[in-house]
Amino acid sequence: MSKGVRSGKQVRQIGEEIWKNDVIKINSELFTLTYGSIVAQLCRENEYDYAKVNEILYEMGYNIGLRLIEEFMCKSKLERCTNLKETSEIITNIGFKMFLNIVPQITYWSSDGRTFQITLPENPLADFVELPDDVDDVEGFDDVESVANRIGDIDFNKKHRGNARKELWYSNILCGVIKGSLEMVQLDCQVWFVNDTLRGDETTDIKVKLNQVLKDEIPDGDE
């Protein structure tokens, strides 16, 4: 994904131009509430087994990422990156800008240069959301607006089987999207949340670890 060597400023400019000229805008509140309703439905269907919900959100994101990369490549007109550092710059300055209109920061690199951390300045998926500590914390929130402010439109009760604030990675779909997108450009990576302000952390952070560079597969019959 490279047009040659680019500075960080040039990469940011590409992201800004794509956002301004090539992206269909949608109402941010509608986007947030729609995602919240999806998470809410998954929680109900899985009886508030948050580990299971995390897996489903990740898989959903992964499948989206496998397809989203085509739109990304078409609009950005970028060639393959030459190294992981350049990849990280493209993800934060163009990918996040294009699809969420935010520009995260890279706040950590491992000594071997194979792991980096993305810190989100804000999370559009989590606007208006507050995760409960326990069942008692949500009793009495029966009207749509109050419940939506908690987590989508989930109707928590005493059958609540887990602790959302400790167990749920509400925006885990983002990790799946990054995982799927990178896999499509032959980068096998682990992607996971390490912090989330919804869980009481000071920042919202995602780590990306490169496992291996995959070989390009040649279709049967081609040489």
TrEMBL record:
One of its GO terms (biological process) is macroautophagy. CDD domains: TRAPPC3_bet3. The keyword Transport applies. GO terms for cellular component: endoplasmic reticulum; Golgi apparatus; TRAPP complex. Belongs to the TRAPP small subunits family. BET3 subfamily. This is Trafficking protein particle complex subunit BET3. Keywords: Endoplasmic reticulum, ER-Golgi transport, Golgi apparatus, Transport. The keyword Mitochondrion does not apply. It is found in: Endoplasmic reticulum; Golgi apparatus, cis-Golgi network. PANTHER family: TRAFFICKING PROTEIN PARTICLE COMPLEX SUBUNIT 3 (PTHR13048). It comes from the Eukaryota. InterPro entries: Bet3, NO_sig/Golgi_transp_ligand-bd, TRAPP_component.
